[in-house]
Design a protein that fits this description.
Layout (H helix, E strand, L loop, with lengths): L8 H8 L4 E7 L8 E7 L3 H14 L8 E12 L2 E10 L11 H11 L32 E5 L2 H5 L5 E3 L1 H14 L8 E8 L4 H15 L7 E8 L3 E8 L1
Helix pairs in contact: 1-3
């Protein structure tokens, strides 16, 4: 069993105290990368989204109380079939690793800010079955709740025109883009997907399937993922094909 790094222990302990959350990996920052972070899984998407909104509100305050800029975003890996998330603190200014001596104190303040209390957590309707299994497929006739933009021009022109699609249509288009479309002009081809919060768990399963295919070299190239919460209760997933 690996020993936790000292500076990140208060945040790891606080997250593990919440029913339904489980920390997976953590780091309090190092010379080449001074960011502090914790990767954790959650039974639902709602609670990490609420934390993100609280941190976003604090970041907009002129009297920001932290020496790190803290954010929470989706981390598109499944852990025991549960979606992953990452809470990350980037040092503010040019102090970098020197700020690590304040990290333990800062993570305690962060815990207080987020009102981390296992008794407050309620598991909302998030599309999961009662046994906490995340559904993998969707009825093909389901509403077109996902919005898709794909292709290298998304990167080149910053194009964000999207097409509403069902989950099945989304899967087919993503597989097509991954298998056949090539990056142009030296840019990485981009697939950008926007999902309502209550349907977003499907995105984790989509990426899990793609990683399995990547491992078998089905695409002949690699891909990277990046995700964010946005304020109107949506999740954005960007897939960059190298």
């Amino acid at each position: 069993m690996k020993t936790l790094e000292k500076g990140i222990i208060p945040l790891v302990d606080a997250l593990n105290d919440i029913e339904g959350l489980k920390t997976r990996y953590s780091c309090h920052g190092h010379v080449r990368d001074p960011r502090a972070w914790v990767i954790f899984s959650s039974l639902d998407v709602e609670l990490p989204y609420q934390f993100c909104e609280k941190l976003r509100a604090v970041a907009e305050n002129h009297s920001y109380p932290f020496r790190h800029l803290w954010t929470i975003r989706p981390w598109f890996h499944l852990y025991d079939q549960l979606p992953g998330f990452i809470i990350e603190g980037r040092p503010v200014g040019h102090f970098g690793l020197l700020l690590r001596k304040y990290l333990s104190e800062e993570t305690i303040k962060l815990k207080e800010l987020l009102f981390i209390d296992g008794n407050e957590h309620q598991n909302p309707d998030n599309g999961c079955k009662e046994n906490n299994e995340v559904p993998i497929s969707v009825d093909p006739s389901s509403p077109r709740v996902f919005r898709l933009a794909a292709g290298a021009p998304v990167v080149i022109r910053g194009n964000r025109f999207t097409t509403p699609v069902t989950f099945n249509e989304l899967c087919h288009e993503v597989l097509y883009q991954m298998a056949f479309q090539k990056a142009r002009n030296g840019n990485k081809a981009l697939i950008s997907i926007t999902s309502p919060l209550n349907h977003s768990l499907y995105l984790w399963h989509l990426i899990s399937t793609l990683r399995g295919m990547e491992h078998e070299d089905a695409f002949g190239r690699r891909f990277e993922t990046e995700g964010h919460f946005i304020g109107n209760r949506h999740v954005i997933l960007n897939i960059r094909c190298c």
